[in-house]
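This section describes the prediction task in plain terms. A model, or a person checking by hand, is given the sequence of a single protein chain and must write out its three-dimensional structure as a string of tokens. No templates, partner chains or ligands are provided. The sample shown here is typical of the held-out split.
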Amino acid sequence: MAIHRPTAPTSAHPEIAEIPGSMITANASKALAVLRLATGFVFLWAFLDKTFGLNYTTSSAKAWIHGGSPTKGFLSSVAVGPFQSVFHTMAGTWYANWLFMLGMLGIGVALIAGVAVRIAAASGVLIMAMMWFAEFPFAQHTSAGAASGSTNPLTDYHFIYAAVLVVLAATFAGSTWGLGRYWARLPFVHRHRWAL
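The expected answer:
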């Protein structure tokens, strides 16, 4: 089993310095790559299904290309939390639709390609936080008094996806089975490490 031990900052990743006891095995790198690809496909699939109505969560008649709104159904049904009115106001607006869909597409493509993983992670964490607030797991009851369906007040799937995105960015997961190493060598990315 190969073990990768960073011994000094590299030109591709100057943040990596030797830390006593730190290591990542080749198998761990591959596991992170699988996690990256799977997470990227979650975001990309959301874009594809809502755009083309692939009859999973979105029917063809409600597809974005057929005049459907990717955000109206979810945001207009928000019935918990302190931001209900904000989400209801945003539901179905052109800016909410475009920002959400571009976010899903950009995050999905970036993660699958293994490039701009930090930007994808930051964007994904923001989207997951907004969706967490829309479902507001703290609430046990909706504004109408019905059970909210929350099963855990903190750690729901939005939190897990956000944590996964942070781990992928922190571990340079785009370098294995992705274009991360090539991306890191681009002059702009080399000068602006936030774009890794």
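For orientation: The chain has one domain: 25-141+148-195.
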